[in-house]
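Title: Prediction job returns without error message
Component: structure pipeline
Severity: low
Priority: P3
Assignee: unassigned

Description:
Job completed but the reporter wants confirmation the result is attached to the right record. Sequence as submitted:
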Amino acid sequence: MFILVLQRVLVGAVLDIFYFPLWWYTVGAKHALLWCVGLLAYGNDNFAPGLWLKNIFVPMYGQYDFQGRIISFLMRLAQIIGRSVALAVWLVLCLILFFIWLLIPVVIVWGLTRALSVPKI
């Protein structure tokens, strides 16, 4: 009985080791990509440049005179530019996280082969 359990555990472990790279670059990569897209959507919800763009011609604080409209337009334009740049940086960070996910196994295998290689004397 113990031999059968041990055999099943060992076979399962070996199969998991060989299945891991396939999972990492298919199902795992899809999951990581969806997580990064969700993170980007969260950033878009926080920075919301589209909301500022939607209200660019609406005067701030009820100032309907000419100066109030000009100041409101310029402030919202500055907000749109700043928030769009921040969202672009957020997008780059999300892409970097996804590419780090893809590179982790490669870096680990490279490090293991480098550490286990026998130095030539």
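Comment from assignee: result matches the submitted record. The mean pLDDT is 92.
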